[in-house]
Write a structure and sequence with these properties.
The complex is a heterodimer of chains A (108) and B (114). Helix content of chain A is 0%, strand content 44%. Chain A is mainly beta. In chain A, the strands form 3 sheets. In chain A, strands 2, 5, 6, 9, 10 and 11 form a 6-stranded mixed β-sheet that branches. In chain A, strand 5 and strand 6 form a beta hairpin. Chain A is globular. With 114 residues, chain B is mostly beta strands. Chain B is 0% helix and 53% strand. Chain B contains no helices and 11 strands. In chain B, strands 2, 4, 5, 6, 9, 10 and 11 form a 7-stranded mixed β-sheet that branches. In chain B, strands 1-3-8-7 form a 4-stranded antiparallel β-sheet, with no helix packed on it. Chain B starts with a strand and ends with a strand. Classes of the chains: A mainly beta (108), B mainly beta (114).
Chain lengths: 108, 114
């Protein structure tokens, strides 16, 4: 079965501190993994996908198949990073399995 | 381009009634997916339509159904509403092929069942 686990409901950090949002997955095939973000009063939107191996807004995520993880990292948090972050796994077509989400609060 | 548009944005129904929600995808997008979001279960996949055909289906009872029209607009219907159907229903569109996993979400339709 496909499953995505985000162990933290809330992560609170100070501005300038490093951020790591954890995501673990369960999938029998070759996974496609994504991070989606929802800022306050905005729509859910794609932040980044593992196949692109890109950095978006300073965030990166590396797929670790051995640990079945896809943690989201940023070296220096900014206040505008405060949002709800969802890790998602893609199966067939556009079916995404989402984790429960982690609220990131960046304090000044 | 205009974003994904969902109507109505808010609605209140009573148990046993049925409801129809509408979604207009981004122009040119042929895939429309529906998700249910609740505080307890989070975001759960309902179904996906591509070129008027259901391409994928989640684990929801048959009371939940959908369809897609030739202009890619989609509707979902929930019959015999239950209290537990209260949720935010999100529609998302994508070009449909190739599947990149990038979905463009609407603002959602918030359904309250009394």
């Amino acid at each position: 079965a496909q499953r995505v686990t985000q162990p933290e409901k809330l992560l609170s950090v100070f501005k300038g501190a490093p951020v790591e949002l954890k995501c673990n997955y369960s999938y029998s095939g070759s996974p496609e993994l994504f991070w989606y973000v929802q800022y306050s009063r905005q729509r859910l939107q794609l932040l980044l996908r593992h196949i692109s191996r890109e950095s978006i807004k300073g965030f990166t995520a590396d797929l670790n198949k051995g640990e079945t993880s896809f943690h989201l990292k940023k070296p220096f948090a900014q206040e505008e990073d405060s949002a709800m972050y969802y890790c998602a796994l893609s199966g067939y077509g556009n079916k995404l399995v989402f984790g429960a989400g982690t609220i990131l609060r960046v304090k000044s | 381009k205009a974003g994904v548009t969902q109507t109505p944005r808010y609605l209140i129904k009573t148990r046993g009634q049925q409801v129809t929600l509408s979604c207009s995808p981004i122009s040119g997008h042929r895939s429309v997916s529906w998700y249910q979001q609740t505080p307890g279960q989070g975001l759960q996949f309902l179904f996906e339509y591509f070129s008027e055909t259901q391409r994928n289906k989640g684990n929801f009872p048959g009371r939940f159904s959908g369809r897609q029209f030739s202009n890619s607009r989609s509707e979902m219907n929930v019959s015999t509403l239950e209290l537990g159907d209260s949720a935010l229903y999100l529609c998302a569109s994508s070009p449909g092929t190739p599947n990149t996993g990038e979905l463009f979400f609407g603002e959602g339709s918030r359904l309250t069942v009394l």
